[in-house]
């Protein structure tokens, strides 16, 4: 599984202790899948600087799974057919449509 995080609208307030703790819990406890790659795109310079410092404390295996790149270069890593239009892709996934489908399945069982 590849996880893409768009950092375009990140602000210093984005990284308070509550949000960092929440993300840590999600990745460690609530989300059972193993990530093959975490792609960070559109990183402001100051997020890139912070990540460069934090990276030193991450295990080598995790460091190798986190990639910092531009949205354009991401298309060399992930086929655009698997990305939503907001990431320059062609996948028109609709969460509301998916929810309706799941409700229909639930009603029929």
Radius of gyration: 17 Å
Give, in spatial order, the strands making up the sheet with the most strands. 1-2-3
Number of domains: 1
CATH architecture level-2 label: 3-Layer(aba) Sandwich
Which runs of at least 5 residues are low in confidence (pLDDT < 50)?
none
CATH class term: Alpha Beta
Q: What proportion of the residues form beta strands (DSSP E)?
A: 5-15%
Distance N to C terminus: 29 Å
CATH superfamily: CRAL-TRIO lipid binding domain
Order of helices and strands: EHEHHEHH
Describe this structure in words.
The chain has a single domain, classed as CRAL-TRIO lipid binding domain (Phosphatidylinositol Transfer Protein Sec14p, 3-Layer(aba) Sandwich). Helices cover 45% and strands 13% of the residues. The chain has helices spanning 17-30, 45-55, 60-65, 71-74, 95-108; strands at 2-6, 37-41, 66-69. The longest helix has 14 residues, at 17-30. The chain has a 3-stranded parallel sheet. The chain is of the alpha/beta class and 109 residues long. It has 5 helices and 3 strands; from the N terminus they run E-H-E-H-H-E-H-H.
């Amino acid at each position: 599984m590849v996880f893409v995080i768009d950092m375009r609208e990140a602000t210093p307030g984005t990284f308070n202790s509550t949000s960092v703790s929440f993300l840590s819990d999600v990745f460690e406890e609530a989300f059972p899948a193993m990530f093959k790659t975490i792609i960070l795109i559109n990183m402001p310079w100051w997020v890139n600087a912070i990540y460069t410092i934090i990276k030193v404390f991450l295990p080598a295996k995790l460091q190798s799974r986190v990639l910092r790149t531009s949205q354009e270069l991401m298309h060399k890593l992930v086929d655009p057919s698997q990305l939503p239009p907001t990431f320059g892709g062609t996948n028109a996934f609709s969460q509301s449509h998916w929810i309706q489908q799941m409700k229909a399945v639930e009603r029929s069982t």
